[in-house]
Amino acid sequence: MTVISPTQPALPTTASRPRSALRGLGMFFRRAPFSAFWGCIAAAILVMAVAAPVIAPYEPLKSDFRSMQKPPDEKHWFGTDQIGRDVLSRVIYGSRASLTVALGAVLFGTTVGALWGLACGYFGGRFDMASQRLIEFLQSFPDLILAMAIAMALGGGLGTVIVAIAITRIPFGGRVIRSVVLSLKEIQYVEAARGLGASHKRLMFRHILPQCVAPYLILATTHLGVAIVIEASLGFLGVGIPPPTPTWGNMLADSLNAGLVPPWWLVLFPGVAITITVLAFNLLGDGIRDMLDPRLRGSV
Amino acid sequence: MYSYIARRLVFGALTVVGVSIMVFVIMRILPGDPLVAIFGPEGFTKLSDKERAGYMAELGLSDPLWVQYLAWVKDILRGNFGRSFFRSESVGDMILRRGPLTAEIALISVVLSWLVGIPVAIVSALKPNTVVDSAARFVSILFLAVPGFWVGMLIVLGLLFWFGYRAPMTGASLFVDPVANLQLVIGPAVVLGLGQAAYIARMGRSSLLEVIREDYVRTARAKGLNNRLVIAMHALPNALLPVITLSGVLLGLVLAGSIPVERAFATPGLGFAMFTAVSERDVFVMQNLVFLYAVVFVLLNIVVDVTIALLDPRIRYR
Prior knowledge:
The complex is a heterodimer of chains A (300) and B (318).
Chain A: H1 21-31, H2 33-50, H3 52-55, H4 87-123, H5 125-139, H6 143-154, H7 158-185, H8 188-195, H9 200-208, H10 213-237, H11 248-255, H12 264-292
Helix pairs in contact in A: 1-2, 2-4, 2-12, 4-5, 4-7, 4-10, 4-12, 5-7, 6-7, 7-10, 8-9, 10-11, 10-12, 11-12
Chain B: H1 2-29, H2 34-46, H3 49-58, H4 65-77, H5 91-126, H6 131-145, H7 148-163, H8 178-212, H9 215-222, H10 227-265, H11 270-279, H12 283-311, H13 313-316
């Protein structure tokens, strides 16, 4: 975390000095308390996902035929579903699927996109032209539709959902990092390194890539929320992680099969979980963006 | 201007070709075997080799891929979108029957997003960092986070619970039965419209805040023009340009978002057809619908770009 400088990535100055992760965190809390608060909630959700077996009061897959479709009471705080599974436990376990997919897809998609963008910006020419067309084609699909088609073609499951959502994230990484690299390429220290006979590999990975870390982090955090919503939508449409694995999207889809009038507790709680998680990651992302790139402060 | 439109159209046509190849690659080549998509991974393993070969030949899937691709393109150019495995209705008829409903939803939602988003943006930008502004910003952040289809489910549930109301289940044309049609369309349109309004309010606010600081706005104020007129006549037109562009991008959100939202409301539109195709693993219907959605998205973006070019000479003469 020492390479992050508070200055703009495109204009590296000598003023940027290494800062420990802890001090950075302290500054984040002082500068953006609101985002930091939601960051804590995001961290809490992460802990909930990791520690799901410890926290969840019941087994998420075990049905209890003596209490089917019961409204919330003191034994089952969020009620039970059609076949007597505890909704609270399923919501807690659902965070695992949601976060695994979101983190996996965003890291994978943004990283591939960023490396692609690095190559495009650095080499330019025909390779860049062809890549830009390809990215345009990818962006001609609305996100969810592209993810649906890929998930359906690959046949469902955790891995395919991650890949499907990751592919929709590639163009964003590609575009942003490419433009950063284009401006960096002309900067004097890069030219100096080139003049000294540095190889392409060394120029790209030693001199240019470190300056792309801030925009990369901004991109990754701002896309987490989108990825969570796409994952939930895929689950809701039946092309996500297949049941009986509890995911928030699956639970909402299941609730529609619970008779003509779905019980309110089956609809309410998974949706609240999605909303709070997305809100937390979006606001954390906003805070990180404001801190790493002051120029963008307050814009969309 | 005409050369700009022509250039944009040529690029658009190129994009459509690229998109068709991409759809074909995703739906036919990626899994290695469309039968996996049709029967599912478990069902596929249960088929014998002979059955597999039989199905492949029957579906025209044992031809070389480029032959299949050309056959598909030829069909589309003839307006023949093929047939579903499971339904007697052809895909073309289905699009004609269900498409208008989804188009209506999209149109109403875009209008709604402007009607709600722009006033909120103006109020926010005129009184930045006040209670009103903070409240507006928080509500829009909240709306960005809430999944539309879940809001839809809550609305359906609430109406049923408190009023015993349920929207009609069957499709109704705007011209034959406008009341039933409105009942079908209004729910999804409101949900999708408010989702977009949040983006528009955010973008409108920051864009207006930027424009208000410019010299020409100060000049307008300095000559004693009424503040309302300054905002409405001088600041707003320029501030709206990025909002129009954003609105074009958001159309993707509407097109895709209408799929889960129509499912939540059980609206018999094209989005619901897409959901049915996915859950029935109807590869060919899916292939054509995905292509259709992408083409519509590309065309709408051309319309938005041309609109922007008409409004903003800086872009036209670039």
